[in-house]
Amino acid sequence: MAESFIQLERLSKSFKQKQVLDGISLDIRRGESICIIGLSGSGKSVMLKHLMRLMDPDEGRILVDGQDIAELEGEDLVAMRRRFGMLFQGAALLDSMTVADNVGLGLTESRKYTDEQIEEIVISKLEMVGMVDSAEKLPSELSGGMRKRVGLARAIATDPEVMLYDEPTSGLDPVTSDVIDDLIVELNQKLHVTSVTVTHDMRSAFKIADRIVMLYGGHIEFDGSPEQIRNNTNPVVQQFIAGSARGPIRVA
Amino acid sequence: MAEVQGLVRVGRRGISVVSWIGGISILSSRFLYHLKDIPRSARVIFEQFNSIGVKSLPLIIVIAVFVGAVSAWQAAYQFKFIGAPLRYLGQAVGKAVIMELGPVLSALVFAGRVGAGITAELGTMKVTEQIDALDSMGISPNRYLMMPRVLACMLMVPLLVVFADFVAIMGGLVVSVVGVDVSTETYLNGLKSSFQLGDLVNGLIKAWVFGLIIGLVACFEGFRTQGGAEGVGTATTQSVVISMVLVLVFDFIFTVLLFRI
């Protein structure tokens, strides 16, 4: 078994009166591809944002390589975040900038590269996602799938060790979804990253994951391999992967 | 029961005011901290100077022409009423514009144009996760977005006020000459005889603080926007209302402090 890389210890978070995460503990091992599944509003994205401290938990802590990330400040926090790359739900491209500037932004602002180096990296990353022809376009000129691909290029521009994908296929047609899934699998293999994907698309979960975790009611309902989840008899898990309205899950 | 609920509501309101003040104080300290990054953010800052300052100039000029024109007309009307000599018209317009109308009206217009724009922009970036995306790339939104905007507001408002003062006084001159039958010379003499550099400096100090307030409030409200298009709308309204009220409150405080009776 690979070494533990990111550890969540009794993580709790609530918004107003709603307890979204209720004492979640999870060990993410180096090199694995883990999918977090669950209903809309079950706290999947919230959990993902905690991993690189885009949110702070109410209780509990997160360790990256044994270091409590809540203790990081200033340059150390920046350095920790640079080890992560994140693809946001709506891609979150800065809409005042061209595709190329978006992809190169993290490199430009780190002030460690010359303009020529940045251009070279930007082109190579855009090539990886098949978007090099759109380099000079603005995000508003792109379709949803194209934005996600650019978002992906931006996330991998700084060669992160961990990739976080927040609903990479939501809002896309099945074919484009599959293209994105293929890209994720390809990138994970090529770049040897650890990846955490939040999704409620079971097709893509089965394709991407070597481990699936299901969140339900603020806690972890299931944690195991794709094989195990298929054969799991827990009615909550079964209802979710079958996508059925009938069963123990109540949708508020 | 009703009393208790009322009390609870007052309490909640009190807490939110205190936390607002706390939040904006923290943002102010971040602003001061990131001033050290001016050299590396020079390009972004100049873009803001242009979009916040230069592009506000036409609107400020139009407003100022009318402010000066109305001041001159109203002053002439009052002079006639109390029988004051019209040679003081230039003085009345000049003092009113330089000490009060120039800084305050420019700031209010600026809050409507620039403050609203900043909050809507940052609010949209917040709800579409663009702010999170910056953080995720290790780029501080305070350095990259907030500092250049607040700095531009702080420096541009006084500059705009200088233009506004000048244009308003000229607007007053035109009305005096055309409508009230006061000669250019009389108007300018009245202006000159009463002009004090201190008044102008005080007006500009006010403008500087107003700019700082508008910039900080706009960024603060933008960064804490929640919940889609409606949230952006609410935050923008909130930003304009709060900064306008604060401009007038601070104007009163400054007036009492700077002009001792």
Task: Note the topology.
The complex is a heterodimer of chains A (252) and B (261).
Chain A (H helix, E strand, L loop, with lengths): L3 E12 L2 E12 L3 E6 L5 H8 L7 E6 L2 E2 L5 H9 L1 E4 L11 H12 L4 H14 L15 H13 L5 E5 L7 H18 L2 E5 L3 H7 L2 E6 L2 E6 L1 H6 L3 H8 L10
Parallel strand pairs in A: 3-8, 3-9, 6-7, 7-8
Antiparallel strand pairs in A: 1-2, 1-4, 4-5, 9-10
Helix pairs in contact in A: 3-4, 3-5, 4-5
Chain B lengths: L1 H33 L7 H12 L3 H26 L6 H39 L2 H7 L4 H40 L3 H11 L2 H27 L4 H31 L3
Helix pairs in contact in B: 1-6, 2-6, 3-4, 3-6, 4-6, 4-7, 4-8, 4-9, 6-8, 8-9
Which assembly state applies to the chains in this document?
heterodimer
- Share in β-strands of chain A: 25-35%
Strand content of chain B: under 5%
Cα-based radius of gyration of chain B, to the nearest Å = 22 Å
The portion of residues assigned to helices of chain B is over 70%
How many runs of DSSP E, i.e. beta strands of chain B?
0
Overall structural domain count of chain B: 1
Mean of the pLDDT scores of chain A? 90
How are the strands ordered across the major sheet of chain A?
6-7-8-3-9-10
